[in-house]
């Protein structure tokens, strides 16, 4: 079967020898000798290095610090081509872990450390895939931030490199390890919703997201203090631009913006909830309506995708100029799962469909009445250490990191955010980006693994 036909139902529950077993089952090449240099035992300390030391890496450092004692973790290195980031990260690691870490400008030098077991990548969106491939080829396990890739060929490059190795890779789509989202998936798998026909995600904000007019880093950096050509990592050369360097998310060549950052989470959760993979078709629209600044990517965006085999429509929408009414709604013929709040919300309700309410189910009054009468079942429970109340959104909760660490030690269980789920969310977000930019309805050719502009006859 084609790699994208390796669906979630086929994948979940399989026991493999890390991802080497997956590589064998999909016809990828066997692991290289470098992968055998250090096999982590159940009690061994795991030595971690941080690659890319900006704001997301500070979150990674916080995550490792929270689990360091319980999971026997240490930090041994930081790597960033800008000396300020590198030095700040080293100082923060000294503060958090009480040790002096080695500092590197270039990833290939850090990856030569024999004591280094694993790397956490927190670089720019367009750099993730190539660096992930580099890390696993060096025989190191990897936690790589999402999106895994912003173009199809890089997504294939990363997937092939991981499947050809024995390394344990976790993509940073952290909600797939969140106990609340796991419970949502369990309800869907139970069949209580009946046939699902539509999933809506509306996740908003009201600020010039990813653009800081007085960004202190932009003011501080000098081209001689970094390596601009290295930062471009194969992108067409343009003169040094500190705005692109730090605010890559708003520039077309380096990110899809909303699609790469937020919709990658959204599509990944849809795949997670429904045991599906890549959309069959995609349309998108939007524009720069609220914040006409230096950005090239939209601040208002909507996409519609179909999953033909599962027979449902997926709607994703974000507005950065109005934050009213964030929600996720999963609609089945027998019931609805509804979450107040945006990405990662813990405020979920199950509402049976056939309640014989006068005039149908009013969105606002109906929800209040259903909750008051007990017809809406509160999904969030204290069983998971969370109560109904403020929306629980924390990018640095321990579940996802701990899942990766446990898989590194076990090496016969695949992480929740594995290379396949990373490939799937990447293609979904790439399709949405391309559909918006080209103004076309696009399709995924499962056999050729290509985005095309015409329906695919199978």
Uncertain runs: 1-5, 12-37, 382-390
| Average predicted local confidence, pLDDT | 89
Distance between the termini: 13 Å
Measured by DSSP, the beta-strand proportion falls in: 15-25%
Spatial ordering of strands, largest sheet: 14-13-12-11-7-10-9-8-15-16
The DSSP helix count reads 15
The rounded Rg comes to 22 Å
Written overview of the protein:
A hairpin with a 4-residue loop joins strand 15 (442-445) and strand 16. With 458 residues, the chain is of the alpha/beta class. Helix content is 34%, strand content 18%. It has helices at residues 8-11, 20-25, 55-71, 83-97, 107-110, 128-137, 152-163, 179-190, 216-220, 228-232, 242-246, 258-274, 363-373, 398-410, 419-438; strands at 46-51, 73-79, 102-104, 118-121, 141-144, 169-171, 196-202, 281-287, 300-307, 312-319, 327-332, 335-340, 347-352, 377-378, 442-445, 450-452. 45% of the residues are buried. The protein has a ten-stranded mixed β-sheet with strand order 14-13-12-11-7-10-9-8-15-16, with helices on both faces. Strands 3-2-1-4-5-6 form a six-stranded parallel β-sheet, sandwiched between helices.
In short, what is this structure?
The chain has 458 residues and is of the alpha/beta class. The chain has 15 helices and 16 strands.
